[in-house]
Amino acid sequence: MAAPKKGRRPAGGQSRPGRALALILIAMVALTGGMFWSGHTTPRLGIDLAGGTSITLKAKPEPGQESALNETNMNTAVGIIERRVNGLGVSEAEVQTQGRENIIVNIPKGTNEKQAREQVGTTAQLYFRPVLAVASAEQPAPNPSATPSSSASPKPKASGSTADKGKGGTTATPSSSASTQGRAVSEALKAPSPTPTASSSSSTKPSSTPKPTQSGDAAANALQQKFAALNCLDPKQRSAAGQGTKPADPVVACGKNSLGQWEKYLLGPAEVDGKDVDDAKGVFDQQRGMWIVTMDFTGEGSKKFQKITGKLSQQTEPQNQFAIVLDGEVVSAPSVRQTLSASAEISGSFNQQSAQDLGNILSYGALPLSFDTQSVDTVTAALGGEQLQAGMIAGAIGLGLVILYLVVYYRGLSFIAILSLGVSALLTYVIMALLGPAIGFALNLPAVCGAIVAIGITADSFIVYFERIRDEIREGRTLRPAVERAWPRARRTILVSDFVSFLAAAVLFIVTVGKVKGFAFTLGLTTLLDIVVVFLFTKPVMTLLARTKFFGNGHKWSGLDPKRLGAKPPLRRSRRQSAPVDPKEA
């Protein structure tokens, strides 16, 4: 009789279930350790469960552009505000239109809630303007012959991200005066340039107020007087600065320097607007050990940026700077060392927070409309807490009924199902806790409903497998071969069923808005985890328990009793060899 081949795997099964169990155990330990290491041991909660802030914004078109208040622009504004708020790491901020001209922003309670409220209010357009002059916050207009004083803080610098990026070098020594600043203002206003006079040199940017050298330029006079009178320490003057001006007009504005001190700016016409920025983000430069902001421009924006930086790179401070202006406030004013085009970086005294904030503003600052804040309401979690409690009670009742059914009908097999449900619940909880800080996922009431529905999906996978095993036993096979032969058939059914569930969740996530996305996301996540648990835990555990006497011998409480299942006689019977008959005896 031929000897059996060594190392042969049972049909449709795995010969080493310990490997799969070790793999899922390592994954569970790693994920749980990561959860405790991150410090986020509970999932983030949505606004309906944790409370938060609800902001109502009313759209306001620019004068003469009433047609801009349309559905397309409102939807664009919703997308930009949503990306801006979520770019700050706020958990599940909800942004949606209400009526024709209102946008509702719901910000769940969290670590960045205050910062998000501030940036939601900054909903005007973003512009890049050349700097004509800079002065301290409340410095009055000095004598034009006075020597300019030095700046209190260094300015960030913009550099190319092409082959010359990161090269060393020094900036040109500025030589400027009130007369040259006045000439810049006149040129910005398209007025005749004044006759240059002798200027004093300085190694730093001037902070003196420019004063025109030609009294005939009334527009330049008015703008410089407005600049001289501006006090950026006064919140009312800061908010009023630049109001009523067009992008093509020079403006005055306020902004903070790297030391957090207010400065006032005299700025030329806008050369680039926020729509020309394709992408921007704050990143850490490993080579230089510093935080920088990278910018990429659109095709049209690259041409505009190349043109303005080509002009600015030939100027001296402060007229080699361009100001990034959002809502009439200067958020940054880097100096230009060279001509830039499709991409650039801004370097300076950034930390992680300031670099990422500027990146968010640059990326999401181009709104087609301006907005007024109509109301800011605090939402309590009392109602959501009651609903959550009711949902948890419903989930507990449902889970209890499932377990009761498993115990009554499957008896000993219910032990495997309950263990598998526990593993699935643990993985779901840990992953939800990790996804909060990672991608801003927040648990809301629809997401809780998705998790409850997933109990049925997971239990269904166990039932499919158990019934396949029982079918094999009814055919007369013993438990160990039945476990392995049933697996390929059950596996196909489980995969098809979970694929349909995941496809439905994916479609629902794509086509819906608001809180329904939480239901779809949770349903899709738990469906994927069902496959992981069934393949790496339920099947290996079933293989190991089939080797025990309790299950292998078909104990009446194992749920696999052949008599109770109505099993047929064994398919394979031992062959009896008849003794040779002696012819004499015959």
Description:
This protein has 586 residues and is of the alpha+beta class. The protein is 45% helix and 16% strand. It contains 16 helices and 15 strands. The protein has helices spanning 17-38, 47-50, 71-86, 113-121, 178-188, 218-229, 235-240, 299-312, 352-364, 382-410, 413-439, 445-474, 479-511, 516-545, 549-552, 562-565, and strands at 52-60, 94-98, 102-108, 126-136, 157-160, 251-256, 262-267, 272-273, 277-285, 290-297, 322-326, 329-332, 335-336, 343-347, 370-379. The strands form three sheets. Strands 4-7-6-12-11 form a five-stranded mixed β-barrel, surrounded by four helices. Helix 1 packs parallel to helix 11, helix 1 packs antiparallel against helix 14 (516-545) and helix 12 packs parallel to helix 14 (516-545). The longest helix has 33 residues, at 479-511.
In short:
The protein has 586 residues and is an alpha+beta fold. Helices cover 45% and strands 16% of the residues. The protein has 16 helices and 15 strands.
Q: Strands across the major sheet, in which order?
A: 4-7-6-12-11
Shape summary: elongated
Oligomer: single chain
How does the major sheet shape up? 5 strands, mixed, barrel
* Beta-strand fraction estimate: 15-25%
Integer average pLDDT? 74
C-alpha Rg (nearest Å): 36 Å
- What is the count of helical runs? 16
- What is the helix fraction of residues, given as a range? 40-55%
Instruction: Find the count of extended strands (DSSP E, 2+ residues).
Output: 15
Structural class: alpha+beta
First-to-last CA distance: 31 Å
Low-confidence stretches: 10-14, 141-154, 161-179, 191-210, 212-216
